[in-house]
Amino acid sequence: MALSTKGWVATAAGVVVVGAGGYVAAQAMVGNQVEQALVDSFAELDQSVSYEVHDVQIDKGLFDTRATATVAMRGFEDATADVNLFVKHGALSADITGELVPNQALVQGIIDIDLKATRSAIAGQLSATELDGVALDVLVDQLVVGLDRGADGHWHLDTRAQEITYHGDNETVRMATPRLILNTRHHEGEPVLLQSLDIPRTEIFVEGVRVYLEGMESESESRGETIVHQSGHFRIAEMGVDDTSFGSLAFEVSADNWDLEALQAFQEAYAPLMAMHLDAEERGVPVDAEQERVLMAEALESSYAMLVASPTMAIDPLQAHIVLPDLGIDFKPRLTTHMAFDGQDLAKGALYGAFWPVGQPLPQGLMSEEQMMSPFEAQEYLSRRLSLALAVTTPPDLVLGFIPMPFAAMLDSEAEEQEVLWQEGSLMINGQPIM
């Protein structure tokens, strides 16, 4: 799988954060301590969830130490980078320079390292004039990653670029002066990561369609592997085709209690599961039953891990100005939604009952016949734990005419908003029960 240029920035930061952290931890910046700090730091990086380290070589000298290694991101084929570090050490501080050279088949360019460490802190930057994501055709111009670790052990990373451009077969995306800030903290002994992203302007061009986004901002707080809160907003300043403008849109979204590790595991299991089914359908052959069972079990287990955290997502508000000159429509809709899942004491048998292939043997050690719900029981059980509240501005009569019966009869064309509520397995539209 190809790795994005953004992924290489994360890799570079991860290598330097862990590696340089070892220098700071040393009692004195001299040869033996530096050598041991490098050994420990590369070992720590190799034991992490995201990275693995190969071919570590350390050459200790009286006044300086050199180190080289190859770092790879787990799960991304050929996503590697060569790390070259030069540490000029003294009794009170050390100058750390070097470079990160990514696999040139994926990313062309070199990331320079320039840091200064003392016994209690480290500061400096990673920089690259240009990084070219060959596999994805992404170009990053004037990248700078500021690094700062204080005496309290917390990290501050400030990543900026002059421009990031993506060229696809029929589309171009250009982001002007994006900025990503990462801060680490601790809460009751658990690591906390605070992130904020700011992209002042994004331009999207797809076969005559143009979209200009302004003021895209997002913030998130993660504790361990769980997103405890995430929010963001952006404004589509203009969208249109050729010389015709269709209006604008503003959007705010928030999410809480999402398990990142489980979400990633679900995506990694679900993607090959769907690919296997599509491939079998195209070739007209049955799927590999054993492989299907393995992938389905992984997807359901990670789904369970996500849902027990009781995740929520809300849109408040989405505001648009839709202009369709040929149809005589000039409409300013507003949408708010709130979706939640109650994962407290969630019965795993409901997930297997709802989604496990009928007639397939259950995975040993994960689920038994006694724990399984019937498909009907499982769907009713899960539907009662899902809630959705939606309110949307009443559309013009022309749009109302396209809504099929019986839903059209439940809409109140005189009301300012239409309300939809799903709660405890029941659907209501404008207060009228549907099911």
List the helices and strands and how they pair.
Layout: H1 5-25, H2 31-46, E1 51-60, E2 64-73, E3 80-89, E4 93-102, E5 107-108, E6 111-118, E7 122-133, E8 138-149, E9 155-160, E10 163-167, E11 171-176, E12 179-187, E13 190-206, E14 209-223, E15 226-241, E16 244-256, E17 258-259, H3 260-283, H4 289-307, E18 312-324, E19 329-331, E20 334-341, H5 348-355, H6 375-385, E21 386-393, H7 397-400, H8 407-410, E22 417-423, E23 426-429, E24 432-433
Antiparallel strand pairs: 1-2, 2-3, 3-4, 4-6, 5-7, 6-7, 7-8, 8-9, 8-10, 9-12, 10-11, 11-13, 12-13, 13-14, 14-15, 15-16, 15-17, 16-18, 18-19, 18-20, 20-21, 21-22, 22-23, 23-24
Describe the structure.
It is a single chain. With 435 residues, this protein is of the alpha+beta class. 25% of the residues lie in helices and 48% in strands. The protein has helices spanning 5-25, 31-46, 260-283, 289-307, 348-355, 375-385, 397-400, 407-410; strands spanning 51-60, 64-73, 80-89, 93-102, 107-108, 111-118, 122-133, 138-149, 155-160, 163-167, 171-176, 179-187, 190-206, 209-223, 226-241, 244-256, 258-259, 312-324, 329-331, 334-341, 386-393, 417-423, 426-429, 432-433. A 6-stranded antiparallel beta barrel has the order 8-9-12-13-11-10. It is globular.
